[in-house]
Amino acid sequence: MSENHELILEAKHITRRYPAPNGRTLTACQDVSLNFYRGQTLGIVGESGCGKSTFMRMVVSLEQPDEGEFLFHGRDITKLKGEELRQHRQKIQMVFQDPAEAFSPRMRVMDIICEPLLNFKRIRKSEKEAVARRYLEMVELPGDFALRYPHSMSGGQRQRVGIARALVLEPELIVYDEATSALDVSVQKTIIELLVKLQKEKNISYGFICHDMALVQSLSHQVAVMYLGHIMELLPGDKVADGCVHPYTKAMAEAVFDLHMDFGKPIESIESEAPSPLDVPPGCPFQSRCPKCMDICRKEKPVLKTIAQGHQAACHLYDLK
Predict the structure, then answer these.
(1) Band of the pLDDT at 188, cuts 50, 70, 90?
(2) Angle at which helices 185-202 and 155-167 pack, to 10 degrees?
(3) Cα distances (Å, whole numbers) of residue 236 to 244, 255, 265
């Protein structure tokens, strides 16, 4: 899938821990290794608390890993500080889940969009309106929205402004953190179509965080399935529905409602709640909810193994002898 695409960012053995009360430790990401390729989308899907947002916050250097490294074109960016780090931020941008929270209500749209350019002295103040109009039209909004304030726009329009602001620095990678989850389904569809169009036009790499398995597989070239800080399965986006092998991924895929699904087939649900990230059991993190749990699953943590080209799973059911 990625053989003919340039590797932009390589995450190698990333671990992130947080101190918790009573001397305990919460491990949000455990030994995560993922790659971002030019013109491709890496989707990360999983339940709340699985570590996907923490991982992406480290991708954009909002947090630093406790172990591992991020290699941007081969350079370890986890060591960057001060002005070097500030300059690097132009290369990787982020679109947040709620643009209403991300924008200052006192700033006009043209100020919101052009603020990054002014911060890096890439335009003059007199150019703001013209630049903002150009990028608004790029995200399929009228240019005269440049003079509006965020509160006078719909959620979908505000999210397009967020995308425009991420694009102005011409980054190589944009991270979308649940960027469509607060939108109506019809609006969500138009935003996804816009993202696909922009990616083709600009050959940008995307990181896409989502709870919605159907949405993430429709947009992503590769999907990483996370559970309690671990990568459980990594596979091509077009193989998620009928090619996944991990019991957790299968349960999530089978729970997707579709107009063409077999309504006579019972929906398999994942029994019980996920354990606390403070109490991840030894062995496989998914053991307490897995219908195929074996003795070895309770004793030994499975590692990612290659199932097919571009497809890995961490499950003892697929140990290669």
Answers:
(1) confident
(2) 20
(3) 9, 19, 26
Domains of the chain plus CATH, in order, are 7-91+171-318 (3.40.50.300)
Instruction: Indicate whether 21 pLDDT > 50.
Output: yes
- Using CA atoms, how far residue 20 sits from 29, 36, 276, in Å, is 15, 31, 12
Report the first-to-last Cα separation within the chain, whole angstroms: 26
Token code pair at residue 115: 């603020």
- Find, among 111, 92, 107, 77, the residue nearest to 38 by Cα: 92
Mean pLDDT for 148-177 is 93
Residues in contact with 41: Cβ distance below 8 Å, sequence separation at least 6, in sequence order: 199, 205, 206, 207, 208, 219, 220, 221, 222, 237
- Per-residue pLDDT of 287-317, as tens digits, reads 988 989 999 999 999 999 999 999 999 999 9
Among 175, 171, 169, 182, residue whose Cα is nearest residue 100:
182
What's the pLDDT at 321?
Answer: 44
Tell me 68's DSSP state. E
By residue count, the chain amounts to 321
Beta strands at 7-20 and 24-37: parallel, antiparallel or unpaired: antiparallel
User: 3-state class of 194 per DSSP?
Assistant: helix
Beta-carbon neighbour count of residue 199 at 10 Å? 18
Distance CA 286, CA 245 (A): 14
The Cα–Cα gap between 172 and 191 comes to 20
Residue 253, classed as helix, strand or coil, is helix
Q: What is the pLDDT of residues 252-265, one digit of tens each?
A: 887 665 545 554 65
Q: Which residues contact 77 (CB under 8 A, 6 or more apart)?
A: 61, 70, 71, 85, 88
Element (H, E) at 214: helix 213-219
Average pLDDT of the chain to the nearest whole number: 90
